[in-house]
Amino acid sequence: MVLLGWGSTLEVVREALGRIKRTDILYLHHSQPYPLHEISIKHIKRAEKRIVIEGNATGQFARLVRSETGIEVDGKILKYNGLQFSVEEVTERLCELL
What we know:
This protein has four helices and four strands.
C-alpha cells in the first residue's frame, strides 16, 4: 500500500504509521505536489492500494495523482477546517481504510 501526502502531513503521518506498526505501508511525502517525481509515479503504479492524505476539502492532490498517472486513489483522508491533522485522527482513519 502507498500513502501519499504533501506539505505539513509529514510528521503526523510518520507518528501515526509508528503506532499502526505495519511494515507493508510506504509513505511518499512530497514537499511540493507538482510535478510528481518519477520514483513516486512508479510506486503509485505498482501499489495494490493508494491512499492520499491532504488538508483540503476537494482532494486536489488526489486529482493530480490521477491526472499524472491515470490511476484513481482508493481512499482519501481529508481535513478542511483550517486545523492540522492530529496523530490520533490519522491513525483512526488509516485503520478504517486498511
